[in-house]
Structure formats: structure tokens, C-alpha cells
Amino acid sequence: LRAMFAASEGRAMRAVGCALRGLEQDVPLVAFEGRAHGAAIKARGWRSPLAADGGEPRLWRTAAWLSVMALTPVHRLRRRPRRSVCWSSLEALREGQLVESSSSSGKALMMATVVELQALRPHPELPEVVVAEVPDPDYPGQRLWAFAQAGSWAVGDLALLLGVGAQLRPGLLTGTCEAAMASNDYKLSRCPVAKGVRAHGMLAPLELLPKEEQRPGLDFSQSLGIRALPTVERRVTIKIGFVGNVFRGSTGSKESVEMALRIALHQVGIVPSGIKPPFMRLSRTDAGVHARTFLLGTPPLRLSSSDIDEDGCCPNLVAALNRRLLGKVQVHEVAWAPFDLDLSSACSLREYRYYLPRIVLGQDPDLERLAAALEEFVGEHSFVNFCRVNNYDTLKQELIFSQEGIDWLQSIAAHSKARHQAGAGGRRVPPREGPDVPSMVQEMTRRELVQADVVDMEQEDLLCIRIVGKGFLNNMVRLIIGTACAVARKELEMGELQQALLGEFILDLSELAAPPQGLVLYEQYLNQEYSEWLPQSRSAAAADNFLTEKILPAVRIAWGDWPSLEPRWR
């Protein structure tokens, strides 16, 4: 078994599977948890698998949960690099679905294709290596970076791109690039890194192909003797939903949503050794805020080439993650993404919905007045009075470079403190008592809302308010909802709301902010021009079910917890 551990993981797993296939006894399940940098593997316990029909132990005939690492002593694992095992494929084995890893299963990635060099730059530390920018053959409109041996390369030349996931053969490359591949058994299983510079492939001379075949758009891996590796390093997008009342926001703490997802990714075993995955996100949520859909981009992960469907989705990985997230976070969809992933430029609109009991607006809620108040927010405004300026780091960094900016920050802090000491929760301070807002602050807090209205719901006990915009400031949605509800309850005049939207002076509305437990990030809309690589979403039904079965019950429970709410929201 130790010899198999040193061999390739594919042959080892097949050998262990064949060995166990004839056993007529239960095999104990050993679950292992990867530690930081893959330095330690800790046994978590022993148990036997349960049958799906009645929960009774069944004969353990496959190598579902058995990895070759589990059969090697821990002290020996610490002395050698950890081998990657594709746990999403192993979990498919546990269900009796053994699929041979090959590029023909699912979306076939081009491992050897002709590309045109769009830009060249020398490597900062290796003079014999250049870094080339080339188009991504798998995702039109995206780009890649590839290493090439320094020589007679020029922008506009054609070259042979050898992509991640290829088992190369000797002689395709030259010089330093050939030596680097030889040291790794010619396996291009992950993005190559040289002296801190990361690339997404290697460039070979075009003379390896006949002249009549030297054109882009074709895969020459078969003619060059290049095979697909069973595992490949790729980026993915993960669309999730979560119940926010058990997390301290979407990011920024050990009790955040992203931390729970990061732990699940490590447990599945697809995070390369030494990598702490930083997520690329479109939004942030505060503690207690829920999300029907929440899109994240990951760094390159170790995936099986058989785990991807023809439309680019990874259902095996979705199932493996959901088994570890225990319901409070649900993965709706995992899709392969280009290396040059840029979610921020692809996002066009974000939609929030706020759910609250009708009784909050009074025994006879004035929905027309509420709709009129919401209509005031549609369009482009300076939302300086509808955010927490002291939490807007970009604005603060601009202001602290001048004494006037520092004085202004101190003045609004003193204004807010004076109001709260005077009991601002029970009475209002005249608007003109707040400091004037500098023009630079007005511009930096300018945002546009395209929709703000009341949504009809089947549930008669709840009221739903929809807010759709291109960008939001900290606490902006909650302050919009709370201010509109205050107008509907006739606690705030429509004229004061209009003055606050002008943004000419500070009108402190912080005590009107709606509680977070009713707020749901409903959808993040992507511009198809920048996200053609995304598969056609199949997750809308899963997201709707999660909203109905998980989020709305949590919202009702939270609204029923009256002692935790401000008096005006009881």
C-alpha cells in the first residue's frame, strides 16, 4: 500500500477498489480532516456506512471512503507532500457510480491548441522565460498567461498552447520549461508557478504541427500524444444560499458564511496544499441577513475531469459540499469558470427583498403611502444619509488626507452622539442642525436604484418590499426600508425623506434602520456580455425552494422574537 501511495493516485485507487470489491465484511469508515498547508491528517473516528433504505449496516464493497493516505501513518505523511485525492469522485463511488476520469466525460477542455500571442513581457526573475498573454481557447473573450522559453517570440505570432490538465510527453518544450516539466513527470496538473509568477499553461513552438494544421480552434492533443490527467486545477463559481441568523455576516469572521464554505472545500479535499482560498464576491451581507442566491468565485481547485457536465456544471461537487454544510448554507450550483475570472465587471444589478409582518405597519397598513415613499428612492441620488459613513472605508481614506475632511468626520460623529444622548429614538432633530455635506462626499455616495416597490405575496402574514440597484452602501437597504416604513406609519414626513435624498446636509436616520432578520439578498444579475462562460442556470428552482423552506421560516421565527427588536418594529 505504501508503494501504491508513492505511485499515481489513479492506479492506486483502482487497485484498492479492486481489492475491496470482493470483501464480505464491513470495512470501517475513517474520516480524515486536512490541516493547514496539508501538513497533518487527523483521524476523526470509525463508523460503518448505513444503507439508504433503512439505516442498517450494509456490506462495504467499494473504495468509497478509503484513501491511500488513510493507510499511511501520520508521522510518514508529515515527511512527504500530501497527494491530492478527488473526493467528489470518491463520493460518487460511495453511491455506486464509478466513472472513469477522462476528458471525454463532460466538457472537453482543449489541452493543445494554436493561439495568437497578444502580449509579451519578460519574467521578473528568470531571464530565460517570458510570460505571454493569449486568448483562452475554452472561453472566448477571456485571456490566459503562459510561460515560454525566451527566444524569437513576437506579438501576433502563433504558438501551441499546452493547457492545464495535460499529461505531456518529453520533447515538446525546450530549455527551462522542459526541465520544469521533467521534474514533475511531465504532468501539467496545476497552474505553473515560477518565482511567484503564476501562469495557466506552457507555449511550445508551432513547428511540432504540420503547416496545413497550424490554425486556431482545434485540439491537437491526440496527434501529439498528450493525455488528459484524472484531476485538473480549475477555477469555479459557486452559487449558494444561506440562512443569516446563524452567521456573523457573509465574510470577515470565523463565524461567517465564507468560512463555513471554506471549511467544506477543505473537507472535500479539492483545495491544493498550502492554499487558503480567497473568494471573489459580488456582495457582502451583515450579520443576520439572508441570501437566496450568493455568487462566489474561487481560486484554482483540484477537480476531477469527469465531474463536469456538458453545460459546465459540477453536480458531484454540489452534492459533496451540501453533505457537509448541514442546511444553513446550501450550494445551488458549481460551474467551471475561466482563469481570468472577473465577477465584479460581470455584475449589472443586485436585488434585495425585505420580508416583514403586515402588523408592523399598523392595524390598517397604508400600502399606497408606503409605495409612494419607495418611489422617491428610484433614480440616482446621493445616499449619504442612508449609509454608515464611518464604515465606508474608501470614503474615509479620501477624507483623512485633509484637515477639513477629518473635521467633517468628527462633526458628524458628534452630531450623531448628541442626538442619541438627547433620545433620538423618541423625537427628531431638525434637519438643518446636521453639518453640510461636501460635494466630494455627495459624489462618492451617489448610487442608482432602478426599482423600489411592494411585491405581491401568497403569504398573507408577510409583506415583501423589493429594492433593485446597481450598487449599495453599508446599511443602505435597511435604512431605505426603515425610512419608507416610517413614512407609511406617519412617523416621518415625506418632505424629510426628500430632504435626506438631496444629500446637502446630514439628516441622521440611523435609528430608523430596519432589523437585519427580514432582509434577503434575492438575486445578483450578471451582464451576459461579460459572463458568456457561465452555463445556463439550472439553480432557480433550488434557490426558490431554499427561500420557501429555509429562509422564510427563519424570518417568521425572528419576527416573533419581540424582545430582541426595537420598540417601533414590535
Question: Can you walk through the features of this model?
Answer:
The structure is a single chain. With 570 residues, the chain is an alpha+beta fold. 26% of the residues lie in helices and 23% in strands. The protein contains 15 helices and 23 strands. Strands 14, 15, 16, 17, 18, 19, 20, 21, 22 and 23 form a ten-stranded mixed beta sheet that branches. Helix 4 (87-94) crosses helix 7 (315-325). Mean pLDDT is 75; it is low at 1-106.
Round the Cα radius of gyration to an integer and report it.
28 Å
The N- and C-terminal alpha carbons lie at a distance of 65 Å
Q: Which residues form runs of ≥5 with pLDDT under 50?
A: 1-106
How many strands?
23
Shape: elongated
Tell me the major beta sheet.
10 strands, mixed
Q: Please give the share of residues in helix.
A: 25-40%
Structural class: alpha+beta
Index terms:
single chain, 570 residues, alpha+beta, ten-stranded mixed β-sheet, three-stranded antiparallel β-sheet, 15 helices, 23% strand, elongated
Q: Can you lay out the helices and strands and say which pair or pack?
A:
Layout: H1 2-6, H2 9-20, E1 29-34, E2 41-47, H3 74-77, H4 87-94, E3 112-116, E4 119-122, E5 129-135, E6 143-149, E7 158-163, E8 166-167, H5 175-183, E9 187-188, E10 193-194, E11 197-198, E12 201-204, E13 227-228, E14 231-242, H6 257-268, E15 280-281, E16 290-297, E17 301-304, H7 315-325, E18 329-337, H8 343-346, E19 347-357, H9 367-375, E20 379-382, H10 393-399, H11 403-421, H12 439-444, E21 446-455, E22 462-469, H13 476-488, H14 494-502, E23 519-526, H15 540-560
Parallel strand pairs: 16-23
Antiparallel strand pairs: 1-2, 3-7, 4-5, 5-6, 7-12, 8-9, 8-13, 10-11, 14-16, 14-17, 14-18, 15-16, 19-22, 19-23, 20-21, 21-22
Helix pairs in contact: 4-7, 6-7, 9-13
